[in-house]
Amino acid sequence: MTGTVEKVYSEAVFELACEQGCADEIKKELDSLAVIFGDNPELPKLLGTPTVTIAEKLDIIEKAFKGKVSDITYNFLCVLTEKGRASAVPAVAEDYKNRWYEMKNIAEVKVVTSVPLEDGLKSKLKAKLESVYKKTVILDESVDPSIMGGIVLNYNGAMMDGSVKSRLEAIQKQIRGVIA
Length: 180
What we know:
Elements: H1 4-20, H2 23-39, H3 42-47, H4 54-65, H5 71-82, H6 89-104, E1 106-113, H7 119-133, E2 136-143, E3 150-155, E4 158-163, H8 164-179
Parallel strand pairs: 1-2
Antiparallel strand pairs: 1-3, 3-4
Helix pairs in contact: 1-6, 2-6, 4-5
């Protein structure tokens, strides 16, 4: 979940990108930056180090990203760095993605199963969710053998837990209630 600062930066970049007609491009760039910053935790740490001057930090940003990303994204990185908020890049990217999904009428649904979904079942699930949410659905799949079977869906903070594990836990709770 992103905080207020990330939302403010995300909103500013999103509005600018929409005005410039490049919201899709900026989303891709921010997604990539989130991965870069996540995979290289020393980068935001370096950009947040007080002993490194702002000029040195901006030089690092310039050498790493100038000409490789759009001017909007580059300038955004410079602003975050100047404000000491470079570590917020992944959270800003996540909030931007959510704004972009809303604009494009896309729902990202997290799906957890005990085994990977077969293509046919995946297609049926996607179609059903699209009819329920009236949006294009992107499935974010993960496998967790501990749920033992069934499915867990999470969309926009709402969870539907149809796993065998949760059903067994509910039965166990009922039994404890009777015995106690």
